[in-house]
Design a protein that fits this description.
This protein has 122 residues and is mainly alpha-helical. 73% of the residues lie in helices and 0% in strands.
Length: 122
């Protein structure tokens, strides 16, 4: 069975992130700055979008982590600059509904069902 190169890359990234989180929890790695966390999530979002584009538009499931990590990066950045309240939570919910809306817009006849979760989470 042929392994996809992106699967191996994502597996390595997840292992490295797990080691980073464990090291930070155990005190082996000092606390990272908030802006660095925002940047890490933004880079992850770009990588997820790149994976989606490289695999083809049929694998639209990659849009969920792409939008979610982008929203987390934006929420961290906005919270650091002084924004607060329900607006930040709304960004996360919109990031969950965005893949459904994109799927619906791509093919309205076949993907009409995407309106249901898109409206529920919007």
């Amino acid at each position: 069975m042929k392994q996809n190169r992106m699967d191996v890359i994502w597996g390595g990234i997840l292992i490295l992130l797990g080691a980073l989180f464990m090291g930070q929890t155990l005190g082996w790695i000092p606390e990272l700055s908030v802006l660095l966390w925002s940047g890490l999530f933004a880079v992850a979002s770009v990588l997820f979008f790149g994976t989606y584009l490289s695999r083809g538009r049929e694998e639209w499931g990659w849009l969920f982590p792409a939008f979610a990590t982008g929203a987390v990066a934006l929420v961290i950045l906005l919270a650091e600059t002084g924004f607060d309240g329900a607006f930040l939570g709304t960004l996360v919910l919109w990031s969950v509904s965005a893949p459904f809306w994109l799927l619906y817009v791509r093919d309205r006849q076949e993907n009409w069902w995407a309106l249901i979760p898109g409206w529920v989470t919007a």
